[in-house]
Amino acid sequence: MIDFLSAHAELIITLIKIALLMFIVLTVNAYLTWFERKVVAHMQSRWGPHRVGPHGLMQPLADGLKFLFKEDAMPAGVDKFVYLLAPLLALALALTSIGVIPFGPEPIRLLGHNIWLYIANPSIGLLVLFAITALGVYGVALAGWSSNSKYPLLGGLRSSAQMISYELSLTLSVVGVLLMANSFNLTEIINAQSHPAWGIGILGWNIFSGPFPQILGFFCFYIAAIAETNRVPFDLPEAESELVAGFHTEYSSFKFAMFFIAEYTSMITVSCLCTILFFGGWLSPFPQSWTFTYYLPSLLLVPTALWIIWDGIRYETIWGKLVLPVIGGGLLLVGIALAIPQLQFVNVFIQGPFWLLGKILVFLFVYVWLRGTLPRFRYDQLMAFGWKLLLPVSIANVVLTSFFVLWRSNP
Amino acid sequence: MTAELLVFFLLAALSVAGAVSLIFQKHPIHSALSLIVVMVALAGLYLLMGAEFVAAVQIIVYGGAIMVLFVFVIMLLNAGLEEHTSESKLAGFPGILLALALMGFVATTLARSAGSFVSSATDGGKIVANLSSTRQLSTMIFKDFVYPFELTSFLILIAILGAIVLAQRES
Fold first, then answer.
1. Do residue B75 and residue A157 have CB atoms under 8 angstroms apart?
2. Domain count, chain B
3. B129 and B73 assigned to the same domain
4. Residues B66 and B132 grouped into a single domain
5. I need a labelling partner for A255 at 20 to 30 A (CA). Which of A181, B72, B109, B162 fits?
6. What residue numbers bound the domain in which B125 lies?
7. Contact residues on chain A for B60, CB-CB shorter than 8 A
8. Could you report the per-residue pLDDT of A318-334, keeping only the tens digit for each?
9. Closest CA to A24 of A272, A241, A255, A197
10. pLDDT for A299-321, tens place per residue?
11. CA–CA dist B120, A134 (Å, integer)
């Protein structure tokens, strides 16, 4: 048994990492729905979910249970194989793409093994992600076609057309970053951003750093990525006022949940990519000499924890009065522990993931913010915007960036 | 080596099964799906040979872009089940025979020249050995073979323009 374990240690570590990542991603997915509903609700002067658990914190669990126990209806005349394949494909591809995202610069050393914070680190990481995105269209298109119903078919057609159109801009907009980093590997792309001007971290990020700041590239990428994930204002495939619910109209119960999870997972992937490609990944925005910024995680955690405890004491229900202070107390302990000198190695290790996750959270918030603010595009506007504005701008970005990169290398 | 061989045979079987299913499926969408399986299995085979870039591009271009277009057109036209005409014996028997002959011819040619691709110092050997890394591949395309490459892209551009002209004439 021991022999077997040590012989296949790498394989076993990878399997455990996959299981752990799946668990984390699915939990984050669930709480992303809570986050979205809360933020949109407050933008619209509502409360959002607040009945199930304190501040509606158990709402995702209730939703999950509801998805599992709803009747799983299959309409008559569907193409059974393709109908069942579509949600599986969508979910599997969305979850696969998370596997190549690196979450931190340093490995965890455990029992003589280096446990890196990624599942795979292929030299063509970015291309792998684009390959998975390219296949992601099928989930939506096939769901629309196989449902044997006119609204899903229209939704599937729209989505295919939209994804084909915006994939071009999506791919072209990162060419600038590739030219500056000289690599397809996500870790190397981040490391290429770690040589900032005047030592100020934020100036090394691709969006601000020379030879040509990738501001245009970033905006093209983010807009195209929102369109690829079918989110507001590009959510025409599921425009409820025109198409009921678009491609997933005929899906119920957990098959619907699979599309839902796939959509939220790709939102997370896109936020990771934005962070890694344009905003320096796990690099801190401050100068490297400012070592006191290492206390930032505790500095953020302690006030948040105190506020949660204070809020919990005043909460209306007994349940909230009990649970919220416990959560707050836990966070308070973590925050204080990170400031203890004996535990500095943990604090130093946590810096990379801290910045990466913080930036990802900002992009997820922007997703929700856009949903709370913008109306939906009309279909012809969508196509005109993609082909007549986004594509030329991203091509111009490629030309300008390659010019400046060449100019810098031999002036 | 054995694990590699196992993966190779799995992928090879998958691609052959996809190709056979492509022909025998009744519905165009199912055929298109089978073709996607073939494309992805081929990408896996490229990956097995160490050609990462080619594998990724195979999925992006063939598995993604081109096949999405196929599926899109089939969905747009709402094509139904294929109608089978009365099968002609003339096309059936000699067709199978000719296909087998062609396959045998290609297989023997490949088998005879096996090894010479990698071991010999000819241009062919260089190409196969250099396909592995993205950097080497792009150096080859944009330095050694830049004129053929540009000519090919020019040809594709002309074909696109031709397609637009033809489509305009119809309407």
1. yes
2. 2
3. no
4. no
5. B72
6. 116-171
7. 127, 130-131, 134, 171
8. 888 888 888 888 888 88
9. A272
10. 888 888 888 888 888 887 888 88
11. 37
